[in-house]
Amino acid sequence: MDNVSYTLNGTVFTFDKSTGALDSLEYPGVTPMIIGGRGLFDLAWPVHNDYDIQRATPAGTYMKCPPSFDFDGSVLTVTYSVVPCTMDPAGVQEFEGGIMAELILRADEDKKSVAMRLKLKNNSGAAVEQVLFPDMNGIVPTMDEGHARLTMMAGSCNPFTEMKSTPRSRETFFAWTEANTGRFYHAGGFQQDPLVGRWYDMGSRAGGFSMYRRHWGWGPDRQPKQGADMMGYSEVLWVKYDNLTSKVRIASVHYPNVEPGGEYDSGEYVLTAHNGNWIHGVGAYKAFVEQNRHRVVPVPRRVKEMLGFRTIFMNNGYLKDPTDYSWNYDDLPKVAEDMKEHGIYDLNAWTLFNYTLPFGKDCFHKEWGGFENCKKNIDKLHEMGVTVTPLVSWVSAWDETARNYGIEERSGSWAETPRSTPMFAAPYCKRWSCYQLHDHSDKRWQKDILDGMRFIRDELGCPDICWDQYVLGDDRNDVLHDIINEYRLETEKMYPGTAFSSECTLYYESDIDNTDFTWNWLYWPGRGDYRPYMHIVETLRPNMNVDSTPENVKFIFMDNLMMNVYPSKPETYNGSALISEYPEFSEAVKTCAALRRQYLSYFADGLMISDTAVCGDVPCRVTGYFDRENKNFLMVVYKQAHEDAEIPFDLSFFTDSRAHTWKVTDEGGSTVGDGEMTEKGTVTVPGAAGKLYMVEIKAK
């Protein structure tokens, strides 16, 4: 094979000169990351039924035409006058003229990364209906298959081990089997899947590459069946393990529908090859996020410091039934006392009132004494030092609101009560049916929600707001964000440090501008790993709900997520129990509240570094924080075995200090080990399984 190699910012791209297929991708000190790749793009180019599966790709068999390579030392342009295709086009008039492609690789200004761009000119008579770019085909492990990781902002997977073909996987319909189809991840919000943002990293502790799309906000793609662009949710990542070659393919999927004579420009994707794990490659994307984030108001100090908040779901909205509720207005002080005992000072109250627009005093539950009794008890909580944050749900026009607006349609339902069958969204429960306000242009609605928030702030005395279904809609004009921003700016002048939280849905890149923490239906375990997100973003803290599992309390604490303490009684709805009703859970919350106070500077001001300072396999879970000012580290360890844990650390990426001391303390604050180390060394953590240990490493 006649190959040609080009080096851009240290990354070596080797192409098959006759086809332009990417033969290898390498970086100094790392074994090749790609071997025998098939090219950096792949196009669906159908004509009619017989050619539905026609594709154009550098590795195609037909219409072969060697590309030209033009390199000036910083920009490589690979030009295909005609892109080869995968089916014989002889005699098919629509294929005549073919597709011209220009692949541009540019050494980025950061001196580490390579910007990648694809431009197409469709000279044929058939539309290009799909573009896979960047198409990273032929990925091999940089250590071994067991240590390979695809890391995303809120989780990771190992495609080399998780997508293998097995007898069990082949016992189901082949087109649904991940071993055949791979997985599809979507960017967007915290409710979707681990991708969240337009970034990923493929590699291991030995090295790999990061990739992100240099685009912010709505679009630019439109995926089939979505109707309208939905911010990053249209950013689709396809991950496929090839069971014949034992290699992985990761491609971004686009449906541009480039008509005959049309052109396509992918915009830039940025690749950063690196030694070490993902944190060594994420810097370019972290800088991109910082460049594009524009906070409306700074994150309140209270939000940075708090362990979490307490949610109560007060009722199901059927107070004609006197057994419908768990808490009434007069119960609020009791809930607050229980919270304070556990170091929780923020109460998130659901169904504190009816979610009716226009909003006013008549929306409060008269069965509990109405607005006056609600305010009286909220004033008591504020005197106790507990902040009350009402949840508002106004993107769904609930039945009464819809009637007020003259809306006949009821496209959704959120009836949730043990009194109905089924318990959720029973079709005969009309009170909590709703019309989903995907279109946010209604001026009356805009005025009503702003007036409603001001009423809650000025009349009820609760400037902190939690918003339900934040930007559930297709409004590209950011109407709702603009209204929230107006509220936040005027409220910050009146009540400095007021917090705004929300259920984030499809719009992570805007949420981080005006949301301080989330209220999402996220539970541990099974909802990924948010530590890369916490490293990248640093501001908006995602929540994680916990009912009464002590272990989950400790995991949430370790990762600096916003803990939503949400204990429940059996046979009823979430948040119906006091924290103290579950003794082991209660003790875990108290323990983590005390530890957070003791090491607050790391959690509130330090840089999340996940487990990236650990340089070996360990029998425990480790989450690290870096004190940027004093160059110190906190490593929070959750022991998974009773045996001593030998944890090898490599701190050299984060600090220039050569000498360090370390100390290990247990949950009660007792020292159980200490020693000295260089920037590399092993720390021994003794103690029991299921316990937390705090390892503080200080520069000498």
General description of the model:
The chain is α+β, with helices and mostly antiparallel strands and 700 residues long. It has 3 domains: 3-292, Distorted Sandwich (Beta-galactosidase, Chain A, domain 5); 301-395 and 437-598, TIM Barrel (Alpha-Beta Barrel); 603-699, Immunoglobulin-like (Sandwich). 19% of the residues lie in helices and 31% in strands. The chain has 14 helices and 39 strands. Strands 7, 8, 9, 10, 12, 13, 15, 16, 19 and 20 form a 10-stranded antiparallel sheet that branches. Strands 29-28-27-23-22-21-31-30 form an 8-stranded parallel sheet. A hairpin with a 6-residue loop joins strand 9 (99-107) and strand 10 (114-122). Helix 12 (550-558) runs parallel beside helix 13. The two termini are 55 Å apart. The model has no long low-confidence stretch (mean pLDDT 94).
